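Researcher: If only I could read backbone structure tokens as easily as an amino acid sequence. Walk me, if you will, through where the backbone shape changes along the chain. I have put the entry right below:
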Amino acid sequence: MSDVEPEVADADAVERAESDADETASRAVENPILEVEDLEKRFGGIVAVDGASFAVEQGSITGLIGPNGAGKSTTFNCITGVHQPSGGRVVFDDEDITGDEPHQVANRGLVRTFQIARELPEMTVLENMMLAPKNQIGESLWRSVLPYFRDEVIEQEEELRERAWETLEFFEIDHLAEEYAENLSGGQRKLLELARALQTEPEMLMLDEPMAGVNPTLERKLLDHIHELREQGYTFLIVEHDMDVIMNNCERVIVMHQGAVLDRGTPAEIKANEQVIEAYLGGEV
């Protein structure tokens, strides 16, 4: 009997190891564009983010969920340079961007939107769009005023205007081009903010509560645009409290709880995790 038991034990161990390997593989990211490693953020004695690690697949729509106070917004802020991490590492497109300033992160192609749209209200929609692109010649005082560069400035402005119109048409808000941004509805402001983000020619967009304050019709339109952009190769990381939006539109979901990553996987895997159900989803998915 003693000769058989070790073999059974070994077989059980192998089976468990294979099961763990399968589970790990199902949650693995093969081609990450964003990698967050052991991220920490402390505010005095308060630990807002506690060793969070996850990756976002290039060309995917990934959701980031968790209860209030889970550390989602702070994680967003640490990734995009709004906050300096207390520890850990952020890698975007194989470049370490840990501690970079927000404009440096954006210039690398990682752009975020905010829960409350941050357009310039006293400017028109088109003017807001024209201000968004990075590295404009007119940003340099000398190049903008010297006659030698005047033709170059005019040419770039025409190109940016044409691109702005194309983007407004894509989001179906070109009819609002001459409207002041302060007169837009909440949903229209979200469309404008996403359109402005696209003007920066990003590789990845981080959306903070994109559906907040958006009526169902505009929500569907916004989601359609996100899927179209994803098909064009853009990557999305979305923080959203609406579970239907996350579960029905994201290929992968990351769950945060008390500053750490509780789980990551497909929507089906997340729905099947009892810890997630208990910690966040109130016992029902």
Observations:
- The two ends are 47 Å apart (CA to CA).
- The first strand starts at residue 32 and ends at 43.
